[in-house]
Amino acid sequence: MIHDFSKNNSIFQTFVAELRDTTIQKDSMRFRRNLERISEVLAYELSKELDYEFVEVNTPLGIANTPLLKEQPVLATILRAGLGMHQGLLNYFDRADSAFVSAYRKHTTLEDFDIYVEYLASPRIDDKVLIISDPMLATGSSMAMVYDAMLRQGKPSRLIVVSAIATPDALEFLSKKLPKSTTYYIGAIDDELTAQSYIVPGLGDAGDLAYGIKS
Q1: Among 34, 48, 67, 101, which lies 20 to 30 A Cα-Cα from 118?
Q2: 127 phi-psi bin (left φ>0, alpha ψ -120 to 50, beta other)
């Protein structure tokens, strides 16, 4: 199931537009905050598909029978670009455990590259709802490799992928690499992928825009 939030008009579109805008991108704090705000909206929306149980909550005047999450998910993100999105998810799932994975492109030519995963810090994820965030799903290769790396920590009960911008190519690729039951929450789907695997119109390098150009 793919939830494409560009199909409906809402204030959410303002956050995505600001991520893309080259003038607003000059403010890295604003860029990080927009990643965070996008993730907060997506966190709220995806929370609707999680499992709940009714719990009695004592108030000053009585008891409120309230549906609360049965179990907190595990929030995983891909360093470093995913940190802003991770914070947005963590703002809403504030009792969740976190996992961090490094994945990066190593180019052999301008157009060819390999994906390397070198670092993983994660709790056990057996029978947990696993939510993996990454701002950009260009080819989907990094997401697939990160999921494979996460399986060292157990097999989750469900997988949810959260991204600001994706391509049809990435979603098609991931449909073959991730569990069939995976749910995707995507801010926008852009049709074009360049020969260098950059998304058009996209927004550029999310990691550099959020945290500075790497040497």
Answers
A1: 34
A2: left
Contact at 8 Å (CB) between 98 and 76?
yes
What is the distance of C-alpha 143 from the center of its chain?
Answer: 10
Residue-range definition of the domain harbouring residue 49? 2-211
Report the C-alpha gap between 43 and 151 in whole angstroms.
23
H, E, C per residue of the chain: CEEEHHHCCCCHHHHHHHHHCCCHHHCHHHHHHHHHHHHHHHHHHHHHHCCEEEEEEEECCEEEEEEEECCCCEEEEEECCCHHHHHHHHHHCCCCEEEEEEEEEEECCCCCEEEEEEEEECCCCCCCEEEEECCEECCCHHHHHHHHHHHHHCCCCEEEEEEEEECHHHHHHHHHHCCCCCEEEEEEECCEECCCCCEECCCCCHHHHHHCCCC
**Whole-structure pTM value:** 0.91
Task: Report the CATH number that the domain containing residue 133 is assigned in CATH.
Answer: 3.40.50.2020
The answer to whether the beta carbons of residues 205 and 23 sit under 8 Å apart is no
Residue 112 has pLDDT above 80, yes or no: no
Number of domains in the chain: 1
Tokens standing for residue 161:
């992928």
Q: In angstroms, rounded to a whole number, what is the distance separating the alpha carbons of residues 58 and 33? A: 35
What pLDDT, in 10s, does the model give residues 130-166?
A: 999 999 999 998 899 899 999 999 999 999 999 999 9
In angstroms and rounded to an integer, the radius of gyration of the C-alpha atoms of the chain is 18
